[in-house]
Amino acid sequence: MDQVVMVGFGNIGQAVVPLLRSHYPHRRIVAIDQHADVVRVARAREMDVELLHCRVDAGNYQAVLKPHLYAGAFLLNLAPAVSSTALIKLAQSRGAFYLDTGIEPWAYELEREASEATSNHALREAMLALQHERKGQPTALVAHGANPGFVSLLVKQALLALARVLDHGGLPARTPTSRTREQWAALARDLDVRVIQISECDTQHAEFARDDDEFVNTWSVDGFVTECLQPVELGWGTHERGLPEGGRVSPTALGGQLAAVQLTQRGHEIAVQTWTPLRGAITGCILTHNESLSIADYLTVPANESAGTACWRPTVYYAYRPCEDAIASLALLEHGAPAANWRERVLKDELVAGEDELGVLLMSGRGVAVWMGSALSIARTRTVAPCNNATSLQVVSSLVAGMHWIESHPREGIVESDAIDDEHTWNFARPYWEPIQCVQTAWRPQAHSHTLYFDDFLLPGITLRDPQPA
Question: Is 416 contained in some domain?
Fold first, then answer.
């Protein structure tokens, strides 16, 4: 019997099982997790998942995983700090398929002076190097959750929507015909898309308040804390005037014309303006994410391929406003409390209302913008899939859509979400993301300004925990 092997059986691992049972009813599911608490053990028993209690690390991963991997099996890496490159090599050597929701190292270096080694830029560069070595191997789809992942498909859909808007305004729309990378980049340039924000506002809330010593959120406490403590990274647009104070361009070995910029601030230390259809203008933080770099790279129009220079590229970054309990939890980081001194909880069954509004905001220098994405509520989520909140359902539906794409493209080697067929995967995952919003807006971070410089969006001296500006 074909099987799915999951490294990690936390919130996302448990949430994906109902979709696997629906779309892959005959596959055996094996989960490997370093924790064997009462909840995980009970959930595994209820879901008929074989749960193995083990911390997968650099010393044991081959011995632990090899017996479960063979041609046609899927290896899903859903755990933090379990090396993506190591697991890809192992899966491909066994003829198995691979998929993860973000490129992971064996361990993160979160000290400011040492963080470059495990920055998203460095991790992606290592993955691109491996990609060049392993063409034609069994397919490994990397960084393919909600974001990074499905948002790359949303960008393409939003480009087409913006083209229709500007076509009505007198700009002829040049819709990609063969939908190549070059055509998508040319369309974004022609539409003068200067800024792409992966824009998210999570308003899900529980029936009772968090305790002062609890760190909570709606997807993964470990993942969120790691992203908060990493320096901010973003794809840097060619329209920008100059680097922000303290910013530096990351050295690029294989990323073509990508300009990856790293700031001195960590994710939870910087506030930025963004916009969503349901909430309007909101304050978010900038968390370092793979899609900020891969989308900027994918939509770069080169000036000189051999010289690695660009004539056009948008600025791309992730602007995130987590749920209010997660924002309150950030006080634990600011006070320097070690993880051992707090309790962790992922909000799921106790949620009573709210949405996870997740999409992409494409802002053109021609004075218009398009926001496209999901307004999935906790109420609708519970009618669609058990063991999920709105945040997890967006992630796991993209995971399973990626598995379907892999099955029809079995020998593609290592693939990023930006490069996969957008229509097939879009149509598969979209029902889980509904309602989809596609909204035109004239919102700008600075009134009467069309410059769209990165500095225009920043809110110096403000953090997420401060009241939102009027």
Answer: no
